[in-house]
Structure formats: C-alpha cells, structure tokens
Amino acid sequence: MDFGAAMEMSCLQKRRSSSLPELPHCLKGTDVEIEIGEATTVSDPVDAQSIKRCFPLTCGQPLLHFVNSLSRTTISSQRKEKPAVKVGVVFAGRQSPGGHNVVCGLYDAMKSHNADSSLIGFCGGTTGLFAQSFLHITENVIATYRNQGGFGMLGRTVDQIRTTQQVNAALAACQSLNLNGLVIIGGVTSNTDAAQLAETFAEANCLTKVIGVPVTINGDLKNQFVEANVGFDTVSKVNSELVSNLCTDALSAEKYYYFIRLMGRRASHITLECALQSHPNMVILSEEVTASKLTLFDITKRICDAVQARANQDKYHGVILLPEGLIESIPEAYALLQDIHVLLKKGTQTDQISTNLSPWASALFESMPIFIKRQLLLSPESDESAQLSQIETEKILAQLVETEMEKRTQNGTYKGKKFNAICHFFGYQARGSLPSKFDCEYANALGNAAYHLISAGANGYMATVTNLKHDVSQWRAGGAPFTAMMTVQRILRGPGSALVGKPSIHPVAVDLKGKPYELLLRDSERFLMDDLYANPGPIQYKGPGCDKKTISLSVEDQDYMGRLKELYACLNKVKSIVKPGCSQEILKVALSSMTSMVDILSVMSPDTNNKHL
Amino acid sequence: MDFGAAMEMSCLQKRRSSSLPELPHCLKGTDVEIEIGEATTVSDPVDAQSIKRCFPLTCGQPLLHFVNSLSRTTISSQRKEKPAVKVGVVFAGRQSPGGHNVVCGLYDAMKSHNADSSLIGFCGGTTGLFAQSFLHITENVIATYRNQGGFGMLGRTVDQIRTTQQVNAALAACQSLNLNGLVIIGGVTSNTDAAQLAETFAEANCLTKVIGVPVTINGDLKNQFVEANVGFDTVSKVNSELVSNLCTDALSAEKYYYFIRLMGRRASHITLECALQSHPNMVILSEEVTASKLTLFDITKRICDAVQARANQDKYHGVILLPEGLIESIPEAYALLQDIHVLLKKGTQTDQISTNLSPWASALFESMPIFIKRQLLLSPESDESAQLSQIETEKILAQLVETEMEKRTQNGTYKGKKFNAICHFFGYQARGSLPSKFDCEYANALGNAAYHLISAGANGYMATVTNLKHDVSQWRAGGAPFTAMMTVQRILRGPGSALVGKPSIHPVAVDLKGKPYELLLRDSERFLMDDLYANPGPIQYKGPGCDKKTISLSVEDQDYMGRLKELYACLNKVKSIVKPGCSQEILKVALSSMTSMVDILSVMSPDTNNKHL
C-alpha cells in the first residue's frame, strides 16, 4: 500500500482539502496556556481501589484546560516558539469520518509552535506501530487528506494493543524513535489500551507521553468529559439521509415496509439519532429490548400490531429501524449465540452444532431460515462478539412478521392487504463518507489539543473539546485522564459475591432516561401513524444549515465541565459579596445568583451518566 | 392516503422548498412564442410504415421550439394573458427525484399566463386517472413539494395505460373533466402509452392534448430530441457518493472486496455514470456482457484474474460495480429465467420447477445457492421481466469468485491471502433523495414547456429541454412528437423473415461506441490496479460545484437540434454574403464559417443514436 500517496480528487474533495477548519478561540495562535483543574477522583470505592491498583502512576491526575492568554479579538500574530517535539500518531480503531483531521490538527499545531517539530504516522494501524513502519507526515500529505474521509492516509489493521508482546513492541518503538508523544486515535477499546500503554510507559520511565483521541462512529465513548466522538455526526447524517430517502420512497410507492438495520453493536446511538432526524414509523433500540427483556416473539408482535393499526388506516407502507446489536440484546438469541460460540471454540463442526445445542437452543436455531443459520454459525470476532454486521436481523424480523401476518390473515384477525417487506443494511457506505463540517472542526480541535497536552508533558490523557453545542469559537479544550473515565464491570455470581473485571473505558449505551430518547418517545405515536417523515438531505458544506449538529448533541445535557465552572463562578461571586450587614441590593444579587445555581444543578440532576460528579 | 398534505420538513427541505429554480431565457416571462420547426420523419421505411399505420393522426408532426420575443436583458414585466386552461397531471412511471418539479413548473407557467387556469393532479398514479380521483393543486401544495423528492404529492400505483379498458377510462376522465391537457410523467413505457392515448384522443376528437415528460432515474429515454431524464442526475450522484464511500472504506480496511449492484434493468447508465464519478476497480455493464456474449464463467474468470493481479501487488481490497440487469444479459442465466417463467405461467409449483427444466437449465439452477434459487423462482413483473431488484446477482458473483479463488489456492496457481467479499445493493435509498439542483431546474423547465405545448394546442408531444450542458439561461425548450422517437423491434424468424413489433419508444442501452463508455475504457486499467478512487461527496446546493452535471451528459454529443440550428445559421450566413465577385475578406469569412460547419458535422458523425438525422 502507498500510504500518504496523492489521491484522485473530485471537485468537492479539492475544495474541502483547501478549506482550513476554524479553531476554537482557546486554541488559536501561540499563546495557549494550560490551566490545571481539579484532581479527578472516582466516587465508587470498589472502582477506585481497582483503578488505583491497575494504574498507580497515571490515576488521580488533574483535569487540564487550555486558555488563551490574549483577548478574543487580538490573537497575537507574533509566534511564541516552544521546544521542537517528535510525535507519532496511529489509527488504532476502525475508520471514522474526520479521523484524518485529528492528524492535520496535530500537525498544524506542532508546526505553528516550532517548525522543527516532526510528526510520523504509523502505517497499517497498530501493526505499523509494533513493526516501527511509519511515514513522515509532510505538508503535502496533510494537504491531500485534510477534510477527507476514511483512514487512507495511514490505514489500519488489528485494533489491539493488549498482549504483553504488543505493549512491549509499542514501548520499544517509542523509545527507539525517541518520541515525545504518541497519539492514539480510536474508540473505547483503543483508549483503554492507550491508558495501559501510558501506565506502562510511565513505569518504564519512557519519555513518550500517551494521548488518546475519541474517534468512533458509534458515539459510545461518552462521559462527563467527552461530549461527542469524531465520526458520529457524519455517519448519523449520511444514514439519516438514506433512511429518509427510503421513507420518501415508501410513501411514493405505498406498498412496502422497509426494515433497515444500522451500525451500532453495543449501543444504538446511530439508530436513535437517525430516528430523530428522519422520523420513521418505528424504531427498536437494543437498550429498550434489554430493559424490557423483549423476546423475538414480543418484538414480532409489536411490529405486527403496528402493521395492523396502519392497515386500518389504509396504509400499507412503513419504515422500521433497528441497530445491528439488536440480535444480541434479545435474551434467547444472545443465549443461542453464546452456546454456538462455545461449541465453535471446542472445535465442533458447523454441521454438528445444532445437534449439540440444548433442546430449546436447537429448536430456536432450527426455526431460523437457512441463510440466517449460516450467519449465526460464523466465528465470533476478535473481541468475542458475534459478527453482527453479517447477521441479517432485519431479515429475521421481516420474515417473522410476514409469517405472523399470514397467520392473522388465515384466522381472520387481519383483513388488510398482503404485507410486503424489503430489507436494507446501511453499514460501510456511511463510514467512508467525506466528514461533515462539524466532524472536520471537532477532529481538528482535538488534534490541536493533543499537541498541547504533549507539549505540557501530560501522560495518560484523552484530548477533550467541550461546549460543542455552541459555535466553534466558544468551544473549550483540555484533557482528562483516562482513569477518570474508567469503570469496573461486576459480574454477579450469586448473592453478595461479584467478579470484578479490569478497569476499562466502557461503551455507554443509549440512556433511556436521557433527553434524546425522551424526544423520540414523545413523538413515537405520531411517527408510527402519521408518516411525519422528514428528510435532512445530503450533508451541506456551504450556506445556512451547514452548521447543524446532531439532534442528540443539541438536546443532551453534557456540558458538565462548563456547568461546574459556572457553578464555581456563581458561588465565588456570592461568597465575595455577601458580608454580615450587607445591603438589600447585595442580597438581591446574591439571591439571583443562587437561583441560577439551582437551575444549573437541576439540569445536572442525577442520571446514569453523571454518577462521578 | 392524504395526497398533497403538508409534510414535516427538515431545515434543508424548507430552504429548498422556498427556492425558485431558474428558468431558461426562452421560457421566462409571458412573451414566449412558438416556432414551428421541421416536420419529423422516420428514415427506416419499415419503421415509418408501421408507425404511420399505428399513429395516422399524430405522426409526422413538426418539431416545436419556444423563443422569447424579447431581448435577453429586458424580459417584459407586463403580463400578456393567455386563455385559461384546465390541465390534469399524472405520475405514470416509477418515482424519480425531480418529478414534483414538473408539476410545480407546469403550475407556475399556467398561473402566470392566466390566474384562472386550474391544475388537477390524479391521485395514486394512473389508477387515479381511470377512477377520476384527483386533487386540486393549489399554491400551498406547490410550496410543500417544490424541490422535494419522491412522488408523495400524488402517489403512484400501476404504471400502465395499455388495455382498451384503461385507455377508454382515461378518455372518459379527460372528457368529463373537460381537460385542455393531460401531462403524463414517466419513462419509456409511460411515454409510449401517452403516444397511444394522444392518437386515441385525436381519433375521438377529444379536446384534451396529451403531453409526455421524460422522468426516469434509468436515464434510458434518450434520442436526438431528449438529452437527459429527470432523476438520473440525482440518483447517479447519490449512488456515486455511496460507491465512493465504500471505495474509501475498502482502502482504509484493506481486506474486503465490495460487490455493489446498482439500479438499471434494461440499461446500465447509472452504473456507468457512477464508475465515471467514483473510479471503482472494476465495472461490468450488461451491454458489455451482451456484446461479448460473456457467460457466468467468463465473468467470474475476469474478476478472479483481477483479484489475482491485485494480490500480486499486495492489494486485497477492491470495489466492483454491476447493474441489476446484468443477470438477464448473461445468455445462460437469461435462458434459465425464461424457462422458469414459462413453467410458472403454466402453473408449475415452485418445488417442481427444477425437475421440469431442460437438463442443462436444471444443472445451472441446481448449481446456485439456495437463497438465489428462491429469488430466481419469483414470479415475473407486470412487464414480463424478472424481479431484478430481488435477484442478488452480486452475491452469485461473489460466491463464484470465492469458490474459484479457493480452487486456485488449492491447485497452487494463487498464493495470496484469502479473498473476502461483502455485497451491497443500492436501490431504493437513492430513488427517494432530494433532487439535485440540475434535476430541480430541468424538471421545472420541462413543466413550463409542457404548459406552452398545451397552450399551443400540440397533441402527442414530449416536452423537451436541450443544450443542457450549458448554463440554465441558455437551455432551449420545445416539443418533439412521440412518433419521431419510436422504433419498431424486429424479432428474426429464420433468414429473411422478421416479426415486426408495435412501434414504441424503446429504452436506449449504453452505447459502447459513445464517449462516456470510451472515457471509462481509457482509464479502466489504471482504475483496476491503482486505486484512483475519487469521491464526489454529497450533493451540494450552494457554493462552487453545485452546478456540476453528470459526466455522461458533459461528454455526450446529444445536442443535435442545437447543432442543426448552428448549421442552418452558418449556411444562411455564407449564402447571404457570398456573391459573384465578392471580396477576399468576405471569402475568408465564408471559409471560416464553412470550417465551423465541418467541425459541427464531424461531431455529429454517424453513430447508433443519430440514425434518424
């Protein structure tokens, strides 16, 4: 592979490649200063203990914030040079639109602070890191890949830095290349691996600082420090457009139900966001199925009832969304998949699997159509999960619904026209998209932040950019220690006893108490019956609307750090003015400040996401 | 269904809905005049005879051109009123992006020439026409659907106006509703039906003038009068973006071959255009397969050889495009499908089909995977063709290639890594898209032209807008008789004898001698080996690039009428200045004009498309 090679570019690609993403005020120019924030702590004592044991050197570090020492209007044009650094960057996770801009932002920041700094990119993902196979990133490479999709600049292979051998190879690479920093671009798994690397490097007194950047289309690397992931905005928008196009098509043809499976294994954020943008008739989220312990039968019945209700209004078309992770959230399907994987691991031949399953599992397996059986028998992925992209859950459901509707027709409970389903899987076609303006800007800012973290000597941090709901100029940037984002999974083994896993950054599922889901619930009945399809259209780069963000981001309450700052500010103000014997006027001001604080606190009211506060 | 109902609109939809498409100069204002052109003739004597017999009243009519009697800069603001007309419009073909704008353009033109004119839209396609079920189209309806995708304003059902009963129902509707005009929106089939309707109406002395508009995503309604079809631009662009995204993804992951099937039954225009925009590694067009009589084995071998050549360069990824019509262009597969359809028609049960096939057909059938067998056994569509959207040809090919690569691995002729394929079908998700700027403007201009044809009392015409390569302002508009676009298919029955079919407007396949295909051929070797993937990105509505047209349109030589006009102009000029004893200067000017004429003539050099000239 010719990594970093010049590409054949379309008109739009060329235009995008020469467009410099705007930087937040706090990252502009060469007067960016670092402010040390509060030390991070983990409130759960068992988690805290376990994290401290595994990450003695990198846990408990403070939050870092970048501030621009100059006023907003007068960014200094005089360059303040910082020492030259040598940094390596690697795509550790799966490709995600905007990933290239992390590299571009990092490069720009390095060069603008010292022209002698050098950036190398490891080729073919972590494999390149282990083998010390890299590319010198030049202005030409940057110009070719700025604002472009995919991970083509450097490629990727396996996503892991896990085994002792892999960790040691990474250490050897960073030491022999004399790197000041290593930037790891990826999702939950890659950033957990990065945390381990940071700890190992610290232990080995290695000069290299390890910095992670949250890049994953899944949008499931979320916590009080991380509001969004690079790629989610683009992938949601591309998929929403396609879902909407099918809604339009369904409404024009009036004879098909479209069953659409979208990406999202462990969390259904993409499906939820697409539903909010496109308003399909029905959405089934893995999180709902898990929470309500719905069986295949329950889900089928729910869809059939909807089809029947619509038929009563003479509507024989519709659009139903589901995430690829759905199959694993259905209890009996999950159990079947686990049983199959155990047998496969034992070396059981695929044609012998069914007879070796428990009677109920075998019965469920045999009830599936042949093409699904073959998909269920696929070996699990490297992370032990099923090959979800290959299991056509949408076809299983469509078939079950068809059978049930025929049954209802025969027994006379359904008198409408024949039910027709067409199935779709929107997977890789969105992942390779040109990144949206938001993803370009967000990734670019994160790349800049990664540089400042390395320059400040921070190790074991994730670059963070927050306040994302607002205009780019007002975004905040900084870093948060990996360890502050970790939790420990407990697997219950009978009453009172639990097996405690390794501390990790875990994927965050859709919060069924969160505002985006609430928004969906609010309108679900109207969406189901009234065909309120909306089409966000193709991603735009110019003109009004090009700055539109995902609906999830717009309604989520995630600006914890911003809110904390506001609280501190309010509190300090009150403290500084209220004195014994102060005037009524002062008291009025204080009271008003306190009202604001109550408002802020009520927005931050406890939910599953802010247990660390 | 609530036809014409208000929609839930996204930001972009709202913006698009309030944006008025630009009109060509020749259609602006209320001073549009009609110029009667040459009478149309059919050069093939057998065709001519047959067409004259079937369409005695509507064949041989002249071409019509619209000209603006005012200069380009001073479009009169004073309205010249024309008599009020009552017009009906119907979506007869399959939904195609931009279709709504034909209605909008028609409405605008009607109202601007007389506020008392009224437009009705038949609901649910031709079914609505037969049943006289319609909607009064108001300013509100227009505002809701302007520049929007799908056919939701009026819906559609069956596409035909064929049987005597159907034709009579249409006649009764137009008579009882007292329509001055009926505008039929659709592709080759619908416009052939429209031609029949026009003839029948003329015979019945019916007041209603029948006008067709070329709207089909397939882009196969092409001839010397029609340069493009509404919807093709949008669908090609949406599909090209998705194909490009997969190319990006393939390059990032470096481990999969993507087999992508695109829409296009009888012609591969979409596949060709997507290949020109995205540069995938391989494209297989139905027209190539037909021309070279390639078997399934030949195609498989071709792909395997490509996979092997790429493996020699350590490349294990790639993207291969094919049209859904491919399966029918493969001789043995076509024969098998025909045999199956004959048996199905006879009432043979699906599980008895295989045993009733000829031995070779049965052998081919049995060699197919089960899921493909089921797809081959589907009943044919209303037009006797196979249900091509449901036959996963991409999966057949992927499986055949996989088997062959395994064989080559076993016999040692292939030493590379395992071949992995992932299959995609991009069908309906593009058809429902918001229309591109080009489709919005083109459809709008066609709608305007349809009004002027009706207003001029033309019957049996297709609205035409040409010179499309150039800026909208320079587009030409007019009408051409359906009969001038007809050909007669001959089915050879032994030497010298041929069965002559009914005159129809036939779909035009990709011209293997045409410029778009030539362009693909020129680069095919580089595309195959060098991964020159380009990504046109999402359709843009603002900023540079939003006026980009399809590559096919840009390189095709289709502006026959424009060229004829240029020729006339040159010739008249020469004739008017060259006199006996004229000066050397005049002769020089004349010579230069003649050089231009030679150039024009050489561009118009004979190919399959201009046999009528």
UniProtKB/TrEMBL annotation, chains A, B:
Any one cellular-component term (Gene Ontology): cytosol
Keywords recorded for this protein, A-Z: Allosteric enzyme, Cytoplasm, Glycolysis, Kinase, Magnesium, Metal-binding, Transferase
Subcellular location: Cytoplasm
A Pfam match: PFK
GO annotation, biological process: photosynthesis; response to glucose
InterPro entries for this protein: PfpB_PPi_PFK (IPR011183), Phosphofructokinase_dom (IPR000023), PKF_sf (IPR035966)
Superkingdom of the organism of origin: Eukaryota
Residues of the Phosphofructokinase domain: 86-454
Pathway noted in the entry: Carbohydrate degradation; glycolysis; D-glyceraldehyde 3-phosphate and glycerone phosphate from D-glucose: step 3/4
Family statement drawn from the similarity comment of this UniProt entry: Belongs to the phosphofructokinase type A (PFKA) family. PPi-dependent PFK group II subfamily. Clade 'Long' sub-subfamily.
Described purpose of this protein according to its UniProt entry: Regulatory subunit of pyrophosphate--fructose 6-phosphate 1-phosphotransferase.
Subunit structure: Tetramer of two alpha (regulatory) and two beta (catalytic) chains.
Database matches in NCBIfam families: PFKA_PPi, PRK07085.1
PANTHER family: PYROPHOSPHATE--FRUCTOSE 6-PHOSPHATE 1-PHOSPHOTRANSFERASE, PYROPHOSPHATE--FRUCTOSE 6-PHOSPHATE 1-PHOSPHOTRANSFERASE SUBUNIT ALPHA
Protein name in the entry: Pyrophosphate--fructose 6-phosphate 1-phosphotransferase subunit alpha
Lineage, broadest ranks: Eukaryota, Viridiplantae, Streptophyta, Embryophyta, Tracheophyta
Gene name for this UniProt entry: PFP-ALPHA
